[in-house]
Design brief:
With 222 residues, the protein is an alpha+beta fold. The protein folds into 2 domains: 118 residues, Beta-Lactamase (2-Layer Sandwich); 94 residues, Orthogonal Bundle (Arc Repressor Mutant, subunit A). Helix content is 45%, strand content 15%. It has 11 helices and 5 strands; from the N terminus they run αββααααβββαααααα. The protein has a 5-stranded antiparallel beta sheet with strand order 2-1-5-4-3. Strand 1 and strand 2 form a beta hairpin.
Length: 222
């Protein structure tokens, strides 16, 4: 398969899609992608994701960077799981997308090409945020001085200073993901995940992951 055949095939899919080459330059931008985010082909082609989409994860950590980890994984032949990304739109507002990645190894021309299939999950993510906020309010309404978390001295500790990456890991823990799943979702090693979790437990003065999540919810960290 050559690039033109790939792009023609992508034109027939229902998903919004774009592709970038081994240098990180966007070389394909579908009509559905334009409808989804508002950017035209003229605005997008030959630009990088970092310059246009500026994608971030739940904790606000940059995923779209000039040193693209996804591109590195694609070149090395690594597996790339689907993930959620908060991206810019032509209006200036941000939108949540779920991205599925396909790595296309072509017979001719620049290869591999990395293809992202994009689905709008903005409403689902906003509903989840409202739910988290409601849980926080319920936690505050049910607080009392006999609460075991309070008796552990939580209120005596200064405000917790978690890094953006630690917050990202903490959000993944709150979704019930294990170490390997978190590593896949954030594109980091399992060793790095464990190190972040140890720092989180230390900073939150907790002994278990569940206790850390509960404490984070109580203090509106997530």
């Amino acid at each position: 398969m050559v690039a033109l055949e790939l792009f023609q095939l992508l034109d027939t899919t229902g998903d919004a899609a774009f592709a970038f080459d081994p240098q990180g330059s966007i070389c394909y931008w579908s009509r559905n992608a334009e409808k989804l985010l508002g950017f035209s082909q003229q605005q997008i082609l030959s630009r990088s994701c970092a310059d246009i989409l500026a994608g971030e994860d739940d904790a606000g950590c940059a995923i779209c960077t000039h040193d693209c980890h996804i591109l590195t994984m694609a070149i090395k032949g690594g597996q790339i799981p689907s993930f959620d990304l908060h991206v810019a739109t032509v209006s200036g507002k941000r939108k949540w997308l779920n991205l599925t990645t396909v790595v296309a190894h072509l017979k001719r021309g620049a290869s591999p090409l990395v293809v992202h299939l994009m689905r709008d999950v903005d409403r689902q993510k906003r509903v989840a945020a409202v739910t988290r906020n409601a849980l926080n309010q319920i936690q505050q309404l049910t607080e009392n001085q006999d609460d075991p978390l309070q008796t552990q001295g939580l209120s005596q500790h200064p405000p917790v200073d978690l890094t953006p990456r630690e917050l990202s890991v903490l959000r993944q823990l709150s979704l019930g993901r294990n170490t390997t799943e978190i590593a896949d979702q954030l594109y980091i090693s399992t060793t790095t995940v464990r190190n972040h979790i140890q720092h989180i437990l230390s900073k939150l003065h907790c002994h278990t992951r569940l206790a850390a999540v509960l404490r984070a919810v109580r203090h509106r960290l997530i």
